[in-house]
Amino acid sequence: MTDTLKDSDIADLVAKSVAPTGHDAVRQLFNDAGARAPEVIWSPGTADVRNPLLRQFQAIVKGYKVDGRVPAKSLRLEDFGGLTEWLMLLQPVEDGADFEYLAYGSSITDSFGMDMTGHRTSEFGGYISTFFLGLYRAVLAQKACVYSEHEPPRNVFVRVWQRLIVPLFDEAGEVARILVLNVPDNELRAGLELMVDPVFVLRGDESVIYANRAAQSIFRFTQRDAIGQSLEAATGVPLELGWAPEDMLSQHKIDDSVRLTIRDGIVERLVMTVSATQHRDEAFYVVVMRLIGT
């Protein structure tokens, strides 16, 4: 573009592209729910997609393309390997008014807390359902790939979801299905997953919003089982605190205590460390448990 246009001409084009074009329904939808407006990029290039999982997905999809489109009949989810745990496959229903999930990745289920396979987009409810429906309908109309990045509702322990949405075409050239790679961007969550000790993140009402893999393994539950429960209900270990997470955060307070728990009929001791952190402008408890023997 710079070879044929002067800088001032390019600046004029940029001015037109960033100028407000009337009522921004998407921004208003998210702002009314206390969330930042999403980012949406149609026909994204490699530079637009920074997440390595999304780039890997983009490369696999490229191999499927015939005349620039992905035929629905040729798709095989097994070709995506480990990415399948972050994949969603949808089909339009009711003439594109809604969308049914034919596949819903296990890791998305763990983050969200519910397997949406067999359910519809409209069942999410609230602003996020409206956004999904609008974006998928736009994919049907535009017949093009789209990248989106959005903040989920606050009951989901993810900073933002990054998604690459790919239309799959039937022999008549219409969008028959939609394939989505949906990956979370959450630096705090990524760090907690690396810890060998059980770690829980709790809301101010002491309900579990996240448990790392070590916690799921040691206390034998799945993420979806734990979300919304109290720590005691999930682990058998009570949380006894007199501090709100906001107070712990502002005063840099850390609480250490030795507790007893019973696993497989054996009484074990553990050290429980409770601190607080901030995530998307909200304070949460962070509970780390370290088993120290019988």
From TrEMBL:
Q: Where is the PAS domain?
A: 184-231
Which PROSITE patterns has this protein been placed in?
Answer: PAS
Q: Which GO terms describe its biological process?
A: regulation of DNA-templated transcription
UniProt-recorded name of the protein? PAS domain-containing protein
